[in-house]
Specification:
The chain is mainly β. The protein has one domain. The protein is 6% helix and 39% strand. The protein is built from one helix and seven strands, in the order αβββββββ. Strands 5-4-3-6-7 form a five-stranded antiparallel beta sheet, with helices on one face. A hairpin with a 2-residue loop joins β6 and β7. The longest helix has 8 residues. It is globular, with a radius of gyration of 15 Å. The termini are far apart. 19% of the residues are buried.
């Protein structure tokens, strides 16, 4: 199966570039402190364009998740069943991703996870989360 390609644009390029370097970074508003995810041209809280790219630990907890048994895109047909999780990072923002390295029926809300950087090819890396062994 070929992984879906990232949605790179002028607002998200730094996010994808950081993943290529096994780092997690998101923009944060300098005026109100709000984290931007999804990433856009201005703060979704106060509309300021004073954004600063900030590194994150990549650690957090599963805030919510679902296991899909029907592929809503053909690229995922061979991955069934697969999970989609909302991970609340320790710094506050919530990111939509997958939890890997564990059976779907063992995932729990509140479970500690850590970022995993999965290279797809030379130009693409995906962010996923795995159970945090240090928790």
């Amino acid at each position: 199966m070929q992984e879906p390609r990232q949605l790179r644009n002028k607002y998200t390029a730094r996010f994808w570039d950081a993943l290529q370097q096994n780092r997690l970074m998101l923009p944060r508003c300098r005026d109100c402190g709000h984290w931007l995810f999804p990433i856009g041209p201005c703060c979704s809280n106060c509309l300021s364009d004073a954004l600063e790219w900030t590194p994150l630990s990549g650690k957090g907890e599963v805030w919510s998740f679902i296991v899909y048994h029907h592929a809503f895109a053909p690229e995922f047909k061979d991955k069934l069943p697969y999970n989609v999780a909302i991970v609340k990072l320790d710094e506050g923002p919530r990111i939509i991703s997958n939890v890997v390295g564990i059976a779907n029926d063992e995932i729990r809300n509140g479970m500690r996870v850590a970022a995993q950087f999965d290279p797809v090819d030379e130009a693409h890396t995906l962010l996923r989360f795995r159970p945090d062994a240090t928790a």
